[in-house]
Amino acid sequence: MTKTEISKPRMIIAWVIAGLLAALYLWSAAGKLFIHPEQMPALESWRIIIAIGEITSALLFLFPRTNLYGTLLLSSYMGGAIIIHMTYGMSIMMPTVVLLLVWLVGFLRNPQLLKR
Questions:
Q1: How confident is the model over 51-98, as pLDDT tens digits?
Q2: Nearest 5°: CA angle at 92, between 59 and 39?
Q3: What is the enclosing helix (H) or strand (E) of 107?
Q4: CA distances from 53 to 30, 48, 80, 91, 111 (A)
Q5: Residue 57: DSSP 8-state
Q6: Burial of 21 (0-12, 13-18, 19+ CB in 10 A)
Q7: What are the angstrom distances between the C-alpha of 38 and each of 41, 48, 57, 100?
Q8: pTM, rounded to two decimals
Q9: Which residues contact 50 (CB under 8 A, 6 or more apart)?
Q10: 14 vs 34: CA distance, rounded Å
């Protein structure tokens, strides 16, 4: 196995987690766009932009050629989510776990990140 080659079990785990995370972000974006827009009155003017950002980031994260960009964008997005949760006194457990999973997939797919 060469330096850039990733083992099959590692790649399968990365794909499964990435698929679940992409589904989570796409579901969240759909909620912002279609399901319950009235639940975000404070962000009403930003709701569509946030949803488009989620969709774009999730798709970049899912595909191997662009997963580093998606990892960066989703990390930034989740950092913002953690700040919003802290501002409103909500638990930061869920966004923190999702952020850690994003990083896990990033490192599973790109082992060279740990060597820098």
A1: 999 999 999 999 989 999 999 999 999 999 999 899 989 999 999 999
A2: 70
A3: helix 93-109
A4: 12, 9, 13, 23, 26
A5: H
A6: buried
A7: 6, 12, 24, 29
A8: 0.86
A9: 29, 32, 43
A10: 29
CA separation for the pair 107, 9 (Å, rounded): 14
Q: Where do the structural domains in the chain lie, given as residue ranges? A: 8-115
Range with lowest mean pLDDT among 21-35, 68-82, 95-109: 21-35
Q: Is the pLDDT of residue 8 over 50?
A: yes
Residues 81 and 58: their CA atoms lie apart, in Å, by 15
**DSSP code of residue 89:** T
For residue 17, what are its two tokens?
A: 């987690």
Letter for the amino acid at 24? L
